[in-house]
Design a protein that fits this description.
The complex is a heterodimer of chains A (about 110) and B (about 110). With about 110 residues, chain A is mainly β. Chain A has no helices and eleven strands. In chain A, a hairpin with a 2-residue loop joins strand 7 and strand 8. In chain B, about 0% of the residues lie in helices and about 55% in strands. The termini of chain B are far apart. Classes of the chains: A mainly beta (about 110), B mainly beta (about 110).
Chain lengths: ~110, ~110
């Protein structure tokens, strides 16, 4: 356990509403990532951060924004949720010493 | 687009048998990693092999890397029911200090008791 907490664990929302998912880490790691996991697609990178206020896009960033105002928190926002954003969202941190990702437990998001 | 492609998509074996899973990728890499995901959980790192390594062992895991063929294999020996999970390969095509792992679609392994 690398001290990663995702919240909420489950969320059901309606199309067009804003949604924010939170990832909190206690290990002071620099790099944090948001992935989505869908059947038939595996894990796809949405956005990542390489420091406070430093973020960049991944391969499926359309419709998502992120913010990192503190080292420990990385927020993923869906400004106007769509049904295609129904997915399981995973936050991960990069441990540069061991060269591996540690994942949170995921957030199951359903957009109706 | 995804870098790693695992094969087969699903594998069912008897407890005690060996499980072999393959991964192919398209571009040059710094290293390749394998992760496991139990149902309803996040991914857990299993093993990393660098681009200048050909084989690596960790307990019952053996991973090989052939950079000329752009492929890797993960062997789990003497499988157990607890090995039932999804397995993902991930390629690290790092530029500078920023690591961006790209995952395949995963292999579902079922180990029958």
């Amino acid at each position: 356990d690398a001290g990663i907490t995702q919240s909420p664990r489950h969320k059901v929302t309606e199309t067009g509403t804003p949604v924010t998912l939170r990832c909190h880490q206690t290990e002071n790691h620099r790099y944090m990532y948001w992935y989505r996991q869908d059947p038939g697609h595996g894990l796809r990178l949405i956005h990542y951060s390489y420091g406070v206020k430093d973020t960049d896009k991944g391969e499926v960033s359309d419709g998502y924004s992120v913010s990192r105002s503190k080292t420990e928190d990385f927020l993923l926002t869906l400004e106007s949720a769509t049904s295609s954003q129904t997915s399981v969202y995973f936050c991960a941190i990069w441990d540069g010493l061991w060269e591996k990702l540690f994942f949170g437990s995921g957030t199951q998001l359903s957009v109706l | 687009s995804q870098q790693g492609e695992e094969d087969p998509q699903a594998l069912s074996i008897q407890e005690g048998e060996n499980a072999t899973m393959n991964c192919s990728y398209k571009t040059s890499i710094n290293n390749l990693q394998w992760y496991r995901q139990n149902s309803g959980r996040g991914l857990v790192h299993l093993i990393l092999i660098r681009s200048n390594e050909r084989e690596k062992h960790s307990g019952r895991l053996r991973v090989t890397l052939d950079t000329s063929k752009k492929s890797s294999s993960l062997l789990i020996t003497a499988s157990r029911a607890a090995d039932t999970a999804s397995y993902f390969c991930a390629t690290d095509s790092r530029t500078g200090a920023n690591s961006k792992l790209t995952f395949g679609k995963g292999i579902t392994l079922s180990v029958r008791p």
